[in-house]
């Protein structure tokens, strides 16, 4: 059977090994947080303690992305990428004004009690340190990568990176036959086509699903003949 294997895929059984390989509560909480929520590492390092509802078991994720907005140099009207003439003033646009804009999206996702327990243990542990800010994981994106790569090496996985853990949640979700549209909401994908990349495209699975397509009609025909 031929399957498409996603780069950086981690087996479900290896998650517990990774958590156990961590030698401090921070790293245990960080790796469980990434794997069991599917958040991006850039999102994880921006999470504040006030974003976590321990009672309701939910997590608010704010995703900030920088984009470009094009404007007419003559009148300031907004332009599309392929606009040659401005729809506002009618002048030809040889070179549009490029303005950087921050795009802010927020989603609320569930978080399991085991991960909340690890986060709670970590927050209690860090009380002995000087940091008193609101960030749950007050370190850089690069430091997050280093932590994951280090833990991967400890259990024999080379080149492990944070996105591997996002892959793990997504592929496990799909393997269990859960709704891909809901996975899109969980991962914060703007387009469903991005989420669909996680779907297993093996020939056997396609055949199995295809056979179910006409199963009910064939059963009805058999019952009619009987």
Helical segment count: 10
Q: What global shape is seen?
A: flat
For the sheet with most strands, the description reads: 4 strands, antiparallel
- Number of E strands: 4
Helix-strand topology string? HHHEEEEHHHHHHH
Q: Give the overall pLDDT as a whole number.
A: 82
Structural classification:
alpha+beta
**What is the gyration radius calculated from CA atoms?**
24 Å
N→C terminal distance: 37 Å
What low-confidence regions span 5 or more consecutive residues with pLDDT below 50? 1-7
Question: Helical content, roughly?
Answer: 40-55%
Tell me the fraction of residues in β-strands, as a range: 5-15%
Structure, explained:
With 226 residues, this protein is an alpha+beta fold. The protein has a domain at 64-104. 45% of the residues lie in helices and 14% in strands. Strands 1, 2, 3 and 4 form a four-stranded antiparallel beta sheet that branches. β2 (58-71) and β3 form a beta hairpin. α1 (13-21) packs antiparallel against α2 (25-37). The model is unreliable at 1-7 (pLDDT under 50).
Features:
single chain; 226 residues; alpha+beta; 45% helix
